[in-house]
Amino acid sequence: MAANVKKIIWVSSIVIVGIIALIIRLRAVDLLPIDYDEDDYLSAAYHYAHAFQQGDLQDVIDYRYLQEHPALAKIAYALAIIDLPAVAELNEPSDPNIPPASSLPEPYFQRARTLAAVLGVLQALALAVVNPLAGLLLAINTWHTKYTSQIMLEALPSLTSLLTVLFYLLGKRAKQPGRLAGWSPWLAASAVMLGLTASGKYIYCVVGLAILVDWYMSRGDRVPVHGKPRWQWLLPVFIWGGLALLAFFASNPSLWSDPIQRLRESLLYHGGYAQSAHVQQAGYPVWQPIVWLTISVPWHPGVFKVAMDPIVTLLALFGLPRLWKQQQVFALWLGFAFVFLLIWPTKWPQYILILSAPLCLAAAHGLEALVIDPLAGAFKRWRNPEQLKVQPEHPVTLRQTLTAIPWLLPGATILTLITLFPLVYQLTMSLTDLSVLSLKDGINGGLWREVWQGLSGQIEAVEFNVFQPQRSTEVHYAGPGLLSAVFLGGLSNLVAFEVVWTVLSIGLQLTLGLSVALILNKPHLRFKRWWRMVFILPWAIPEFAGALMWLQIYDPQFGWAKQTAESLGDAAPGILMTIAGWQGDPPVALILMLITATWYGFPIMMLAATAGLKMISPAVYEAAAMDGASGWKLFRTITWPLLLPLLVPVIIIRAIFAFNQFYLFYVFSSRDYTTLSLLSFSLVGSGNYAISAAVNIFVIAVLISLILIFNHWTRAAEGVRYA
Questions:
Q1: pLDDT tens across 617-652, in order?
Q2: Last residue of a domain, one of 334, 368, 402
Q3: Are 144 and 366 in contact (CB under 8 A)?
Q4: Is pLDDT at 224 greater than 50 in this prediction?
Q5: Within this chain, do residues 497 and 351 fall inside the same structural domain, yes or no?
Q6: Is residue 171 included in any domain, yes or no?
Q7: Structural domain total, the chain
Q8: What is the 3-state secondary structure (H, E, C) of 630-695?
Q9: CB 134 within 8 A of CB 363
Q10: pLDDT per residue over 321-363, tens digit each?
Q11: CA-to-CA distance for 610 and 91, rounded, in angstroms?
Q12: Residues 148 and 292 in one domain
């Protein structure tokens, strides 16, 4: 009976997800304005539809307009409008290089958009089958809604890429007896879906890479048959890949006449387009995909009533450990797609749909971990309080509590003075328009007076423009509007850069520090103490002085790199001149600053890792080596798990310093990069104390979120117990 109830709830949830997704997308179909490329794709679809009506297959094969993208999505739109009468507005121009007219007559426009919306709904339903919460999050996602409600190429490959993974998982679970171990019809269906994905849009094929890696990682689960070796899993891989290629070519008529040449032309186009003036003029930085993931669609505020995209991304960060543990292939899909978006020069927002499905699935796991599971646990404790109640072995008496209070008061006082009061003061300042002109009034009590009167309802908040703050000799209550403007304003790009900077710098510091510690931990290495002293020296140098020293090396006019290059003349390596010209090359500037940050930060990582390595008994390694464990396996299964609890506090501390990096960016003064701390400093320098305080509160909120996420990932509390 209980199983039937669960099944009914599960099916009902999927139906509700489908209804919500359909309502939102049909509304978007009607309200979204005509977007760039819609006229192009509809014109191509009209051409294909006309060729199908005439029975002219050769015209379908020879059609060359917009062939940088495969034909399948445009053919799908053609099938949606094939029964409609011909119109003159969509006739192709004589010159194929001239784009078609932007006139999109009804009902062609409505019919094509509706098909895209239906495909988007089907993807939400397919994801809901895996996890109803994930399907719901995808259904209300603004980016997914927008690009699956317009005549774009995203709807079809988004759906087929998800089906590729789902069919693969079904094939993985299927127990098919026979000569071909590990193969099933579901894998054949997965291969066909991958081929259709490639025929929709190339970039969505990143899902195939995730499947291959997952297949490799799970190869040990495939039992040898008839005495065959374990590498027999390769044969199904080749068959799967071959079927995918066949499906790709079969569903892409433009390749039928000359497959190699036309495929080459199509792929080369994208390489050239990524370096084109159109992409360069957009000016999107490397971390722009992070910006897209942390905001909702900003261009159509009247269309989307529910915009939870930033919350979905935040929940996904908490849900990644569960996603990796329970649905590894989706985690791989998310990781590979994210790396591709960072690497690929073209940063259009519709590209993030290649990871929308696994992102929403990770967010669903995060929601379960943070909200659903704790509520379920609380409900169980409420229903059965006696069963779950645990009596302490040594209960604390009232007398013991009173005795401890005098010892706790000094710590509580110090915490209040050095931590809580500055935080409260910053928060209070952010609720006003405090500036350099009103500083005297603020110090004399005006700050607290205005905030108290504002919060108590005695006065109303004044209008405060962040970009053009009014200057007055008196402090005024401005309300939470300033904080809202900072939290919801134009800092997403800056935060995205800081996250990328923090991850890269801490990753490099940890890698170098751990590597040095492992080398110095070798038993027969000579002069260990001397080497440790040498490696710890960068940490002993003040950060500001160290930044100035490296700036002297990089200086474009008088730096060591420039002087060395001039002294060597034509024999000078090109890297020296590249370093000398770093101010005009943002990627080089970022690399040089990362080198500086790594040089300064890796010693503390080395010290923490060294201390941890000394605590690991050599007997553990000896026992594992006797079992045949390799060096990498020893590190992965013994060294790293035991070191991680000790490294977590150091990583957190260095991450906070990296996120709040000031001296390095101040000294280098790169026009392309800045930080929130540098922004706060400049605001204080210009006398905008209130805005600076709001930025500081924002930084604190972001750092607390990142620390909670990192602790959740690493399970730091659990790690201390098993270490």
A1: 777 777 777 766 666 777 777 888 888 888 888 888
A2: 368
A3: no
A4: no
A5: no
A6: yes
A7: 2
A8: CHHHHHHHHHHHHHHHHHHHHHHHHHHHHHCCCHHHHHHCCCCCCCHHHHHHHHHHCCCHHHHHHH
A9: yes
A10: 899 989 999 999 999 999 999 888 888 999 999 999 999 999 9
A11: 72
A12: yes
Query: pLDDT digits over 426-463, tens only?
Result: 888 888 888 888 888 888 888 888 888 888 878 888 77
Q: Quickly count: other Cβ atoms within 10 Å of residue 468's Cβ.
A: 6
Q: Report the amino acid identity of residue 53.
A: Q
Domain end, chosen from 636, 651, 674, is at 674
Which position has the higher pLDDT, 713 or 317? 317
Residue 427 lies in a domain: no
The residue among 713, 711, 641 whose CA lies nearest residue 319 is 713
- Flag whether pLDDT at 228 surpasses 60: no
CA–CA distance, 644 with 723 (Å, rounded to integer): 9
Query: What pLDDT, on a 0 to 100 scale, did the predictor assign at position 717?
Result: 54
What is the DSSP annotation of 690-715? HHHHHHHHHHHHHHHHHHHHHHHHHT
**Sequential DSSP letters for 493-553:** HHHHHHHHHHHHHHHHHHHHHHHHHHHHT-TT-S-HHHHHHHHHHHHHS-HHHHHHHHHHH
CA distances from residue 387 to 44, 348, 375, 561, 620 in whole angstroms, order as listed = 67, 55, 17, 71, 40
Residue 429 lies in a domain: no
**Separation of alpha carbons 636 and 622, rounded Å:** 15
- Residue 534 lies in domain: 492-674
CATH number at residue 656: 1.10.3720.10
Tokens for 274? 């990524």
**Is 402 within a domain?**
no
